[in-house]
Amino acid sequence: MVRTMLTILVLAVLGLAGAAPLAAQRPGSKPLEVEVEPVPCIPIGDNAVAWAQVYNNVPDTTVRLYFRRLHNVVEDFYYVEMHPEGGGRYWGVFPKAEDRAFDRHELEAAREAVRWSDDDRDDQYRWAEWWRAKDLSEDRDPNDDLDDELIRERASIGRAFRRDWMYEMNDEQFQEWLESQVNEPAEYFAAVVDGQGRMLARSAVRVTEVLPPEECEVTFTPQQDGERENLTVGESGDWQRGKEVFHWLCDGVVTRIDPYLVKRGDEVCRACVIAWQQKQDLLLPKFVPPLIAIPPLVVITETSPTPVSPSIPQ
After folding, report:
1. CA 61, CA 198: separation in Å to the nearest integer?
2. Structure pTM?
3. CB 266 within 8 A of CB 233
């Protein structure tokens, strides 16, 4: 109970508990709404772009793209700021997806909360039932075999967001989709936040496949190309500070924003780049021009017939 109250308090402070009361809305005005468009896929080792449509936006707001991988323990989101394209449309760039195999988990014991239909339990849908049980549970541990401490640390914020996409499929469809995933999928949604980072409205949570680059072609505008080389990634949980963006690559991530809206240089990814460069310096010998036999250059003058040899660059 205490843990639940603390989670609610953190969510309220960070504005992550869903759509807060729209204090910025005038009485009688149309509601602020956000829709995120389906992302076809994200290529392994590369970026992708998400688009959102905002209706009836209010002044002094920012649109964010929240994202995470579909992981068995870690549920807290990261975010990047989305950029206006005109007409209420916004785009945002995902970091480069890391190559991560998708873990399989099957429900060992039936739970009433996981029932999706009146049909008898069918063992062939145990993977789908595991995910439904996790999404509907308080402990986030359907078989009681996950790291509870890690769940408390890394799922305390993200657990508040129901996986809307999951309930658009029946058990059979969901199981087939899970079976088709080789790499860990990515979840995402778009949200409008005020100057204090409080969420005013958000879209449903969606999911997309992470595929080999040859199976997922993505094109970028010049603006998006520049953005993906200079990403600023926001954090929702304190544990995310000082760690790589979970299951996303460092390449292109240069700045981070902590849950209290304090911006800083990305110390982890920058350190990785420096370490890599130092390693290369150790592995690769410095270039030394080969010694080539060069005949002496003879400069003949009227006063000095002394030969002058060229110096060799060091």
Report:
1. 10
2. 0.79
3. yes
